[in-house]
Amino acid sequence: MFNSLKAQAPDKILALMGQFRADPRTDKIDLGVGVYKDAEGRTPVMRAIKSAEKQLWETETTKTYTALAGEPAFHAAMAEMVLGAGYPADRLSCLATVGGTGACRQAFELARLANPGCTVWVSDPTWPNHLSILAFMKQDYKLYRYFDNDARAVAFDAMMEDLQAIKAGDVVLLHGCCHNPTGANLTLDQWAAVADLLEAKGAVPMIDLAYQGFGDGLEEDAAGTRLIAARLPEVMIAASCSKNFGIYRERTGCLMVLSDAASKEVTQGTLAYLNRQNYSFSPDHGARLVTMVLTDPTLRAEWMTELEEVRKGMLGLREQLAAELRQLSNSDRFDFVARHRGMFSRLGASPEAVEKMRVDNAIYMVGDSRLNIAGLNAKTVPILARAIIAAGV
Ligand code: LMR
């Protein structure tokens, strides 16, 4: 039967990872996959995570199953980080998931169970795997305009115009912060306007929060999510711990669902059911480390310090790249690089220009000209700036 299988199109981001690895040039620069790298190009295990692992090794006495939906302590720690200390526990259901991707997948599954006819509205552009998963699930989705490719900024009027068409019970997927792939984010006023619209239409926001702490700060990056959570009766939040805790391969994520208090028990039970049907228990190691880091004041302080180093390092690289490009282009047309937040910026370059930079300069970015700022360092910024100008961007 397997000879009837058709080859699947490779994931663009993961295919680029393989292409980069295979390139023999020693001066190659990887601005592809969204993985944080320090100035030496390493993705270190964060210090607080190392300390927590040591403590865990010394104290853990069993690896028997945990709860199907994950540990309540993990849920509480994540809810506090994402929603703030006063989160509405009586309305909140939580699920430990296989990374942020698993949280997205389970959110789509939950929406489909609750409202089989719903449409999921997704920003254009978005993380390609959102669309890929929705297509795989045969889930209806529609795109709403999000990015103004000339201004390299949020096309807010166009977004709101498109979202006028949402129906009650539709799901609107929003990036909580550090929009992937553009780096262009909603202001708090814009979040409030989106909340008004979704409330008026009776639609359900689903927030993908994969980069909390990488933009303006841990609290600041949650502001849009918290605003939505305070305003809307039903909300889904898919939070990832891959980037902000640097535990990519541990596959640690959490799906949080706000419902009315009367529906909480069934919602929580349905989340656990979704884990059981798809893969039973989510990995626990990363979730346990995150819980330890978030709840132990010493570990938390150590983690916050490192997270801030990471965030400020990326901001510094943004400033440097914008300044180099200002000088080389003798214009301010690349200043958006300094305004964007998170790991990514979309340059607005053509696929040909992206390919030229790969061929001529061994610079790898995703074909839509998304670049991972964390793939740069002080020495490679001028190389990239020269390549961008040489490619005619
Ligand atoms: C990215 O967008 O590069 C990351 O989220 C990694 C991934 O899984 O695609």
TrEMBL record:
Keyword Transmembrane appears in the UniProt entry: no
GO molecular function: identical protein binding; L-aspartate:2-oxoglutarate aminotransferase activity; L-tyrosine-2-oxoglutarate transaminase activity; pyridoxal phosphate binding
Highest rank taxon of the organism: Bacteria
Entry keyword set: Aminotransferase, Pyridoxal phosphate, Transferase
Keyword Transmembrane among UniProt keywords: no
GO BP terms, alphabetized: L-phenylalanine biosynthetic process from chorismate via phenylpyruvate
An annotated GO cellular component: cytosol
Domain Aminotransferase class I/classII large: 26-388
Co-factor requirement: pyridoxal 5'-phosphate
Family: Belongs to the class-I pyridoxal-phosphate-dependent aminotransferase family.
PANTHER family assigned to the protein according to its UniProt record, in alphabetical order: ASPARTATE AMINOTRANSFERASE (PTHR11879), ASPARTATE AMINOTRANSFERASE, MITOCHONDRIAL (PTHR11879:SF22)
Quaternary structure (record): Homodimer.
The protein, known as: Aromatic amino acid aminotransferase
Phylogenetic placement of the source organism: Bacteria, Pseudomonadati, Pseudomonadota, Alphaproteobacteria, Rhodobacterales
